[in-house]
Predict the 3D structure of the following.
Amino acid sequence: MTSSTTEIKNVLIVGLGYAGASAVQSLRDKLPATHRLVAMHESSFGYNPIGCLRAATVPGWEKQVTAPLNGLFPAGTRHLLLANHRAVKLNANSVILEELEPDAGKQIELEFEARLIIIGGGPAGVEAAGEVASQYPDKTVTLVHSHSFLFESGWSPKFGPCLASQLEALGVDIRYNCRPQLGDLVTGPIKEQEFNFSDGSTVNADFIYITFGCKPNSHLVGTLNPSLLDAKGFVLVKPTLQLEGFAHIFVVGDVTAIPENKLAGAAARHAWAASSNCLSLIRGKATGLKEYSAAGQHASISVGPDGGAAEFMGFVVGPWLVARFFSKGLGRRQFGWCYNTKV
């Protein structure tokens, strides 16, 4: 998003997750001298959500999922980094910011006595089950899934079973076609209790991990115009990733209503496309902007550090290759590139 000042025009990037940091990398060295980046983030470090589950189960791995933001811009640059700031109101040509107290961050741990129940058999659920079962083979892990097999709709029929067989080999109990009665429970430790499922079965657990129902953090766009959000709160964008009626504002990442999997790779591709279009606008080329095309069904899913599966355009790759190129590092190389650091 661009707005004028008396001396230089600002290109503001709100949020420095995968999408925002990728946008910085795409724009930093290409902006003309008349413009600068102003990059703001609610903390003083970047975070790699792909590795968060391993950081919660493997001591020391918490150091692999954060990176300082000061590597985004070189010393003496005209660009500006605003760490520990939150955008609270979006106007057509300005943003109201709130300064936050510095956040040192803390390790999130999955602590439970013996029995973990994971609700939801999507990517987060499968990866959580794989991390815990591979790190703590003495624990009981139950994965509850509402469909008849993992990755059922729109995926290769080989993809879900490939992941399921690896989880079962680690001792994970997968309950299919089940919906638990959760009441007001949220993710975290609980006093051991019995859960009743819609199929009549039961399981005891002292920790519950809920992997579905996350809401998009789209409040800021809603302060500009609530009609820019769909019924689920995702941001409606044009094929060029611009907001309707606000050609100078681009929205990228998981918050968009683009019908595709919410993955780090997709967020980076959003950033590259939007950055290209932003540069075109700055150069006075308002027509012929690039349109973003979703890449279709594809994903790499880890099952602990030594397993996993990937699908791309209907082709399924098994655990040996996926472990070598994804599961062992969980995107650390890409994460380090985003923030100009080594993790």
About this structure: The helical segments are 18-27, 52-57, 123-135, 159-169, 219-224, 264-282, 319-327, 332-338. The chain has eight helices and 18 strands. The CA atoms of residues 306 and 323 lie 5 Å apart. The longest helix spans residues 264-282.
